Every structure is written in structure tokens, then in C-alpha cells.
């Protein structure tokens, strides 16, 4: 079953009299439980595509169907509800709140939830233990390495038990050891049934996915199984 279907999706920006097509008619399908890398050079449109897949932005034209529902023209509040219910996000810069502990950062999605989270604190503790940070849950981000911060971010992304994890350059700020830890965690989550979609410019990281979608000048130019 398809989790995601894009049909002729375009994203256009206007800068003065100039029109820029960040996405120029992208059509693709991603099934449940897939492990997908989106790759392309800087300016290719891969991050724009990720923002649309994550309901962080809407297409200028075309259709985006998520879990059988066309979300292309939904209002901001409706998109936010989908993000909170069905999507977990991991960003290159971690996006942790600096004055909060690891545990408090993982608990943050509960603050925005439209439904109660049973045993929230216990679940957050279990997630931090799962990512190997049981002894670090009371540490703030400044007291942690980049790899540890990204593992906190992955635990936070899992807090609401989302259908899909969307990761934008999740290893971009990490050394090779930290990158391996993050990729191994994403593989583990995929093995547990999660759909994983991540953006990367690194061929070695992209090769870890089961499927690679390559973007160039706002178009899909290759879609291959590894």
C-alpha cells in the first residue's frame, strides 16, 4: 500500500520578475515500510521535496496524497495536525532546545499533541535507553556530542509513534562514527516497521537505503533499488 503519492507536484518561487521552479512536476510513490534516500546536488530541490513530503510546505500545483488523503490544499492547522500525528522529523542541526535536558526535549511533542500520550515520561525514558542514552537523559545539549544530540532528536521523532520518519541531512554535522550510529538507528527503526525517508548528498550514506531517488533541477532523474 502506498503511504505517499505525488502527482505532478510543482513548487514555484517568485523573486521580483523571476520565476524559479524548485520542483518541476515531480511524480512518485513511496510505500509503507520503505527505506528511501533522496539525493541530489545543492539546489536540486531535494530539501523542497522533503518539506512538501513533511507537510511543512504546500505545492504550488499538483497533488500530494498521504495515507489516502489529498493534503495538497489543506490549511496550516490541518497540516500541523498531520505532522504531529503521523510524522517524526530529524534535522541536520538537531533542533534541540538548549535549556532543556535530553528527556525534556524528547517529551516536547507531547506538549503539542492533540491526543493524550499515555505514560509519556516513561516512554521518553524508554526511547532514550533505546538510542543508548540512558545515562545522559538529564544532560542538556551543550553537554553532549553531536552524535548524542542527533540520537536525542531521533528519540524525540519517535515519541508520537509516527507512520514515517523524515530526516533532512541527518548525518551532515557528524563525524564518521556519529554518522554510522545515526544510520544504524534509522535501519533499526525501519526493521521495526517504520517508513524512513532521508535527504543526503553523501553517496556512502545514500547507499545504506533500500531505494534511492535522485533529484536534479527539480525533477526526478533516477529512482533505483540498492
Largest beta sheet, briefly? 6 strands, mixed
Q: Give the amount of beta strand, in percent.
A: 25-35%
Shape: globular
Integer count of domains: 1
Q: Please bin the fraction of helical residues.
A: 25-40%
Q: The CATH topology is what?
A: Rossmann fold
DSSP strand tally: 10
- Per CATH, the superfamily is P-loop containing nucleotide triphosphate hydrolases
**Integer-rounded radius of gyration:** 17 Å
Question: What's the level 1 CATH class?
Answer: Alpha Beta
| Order of secondary-structure elements | EEEHEEHEHHHEHEHEE
Largest sheet: spatial strand order:
6-7-8-3-9-10
* Secondary structure tally, helices: 7
By secondary-structure content and strand pairing, the structural class works out as: alpha/beta
Gap between N and C termini: 20 Å
Low-confidence stretches: none
Report the average pLDDT across residues: 92
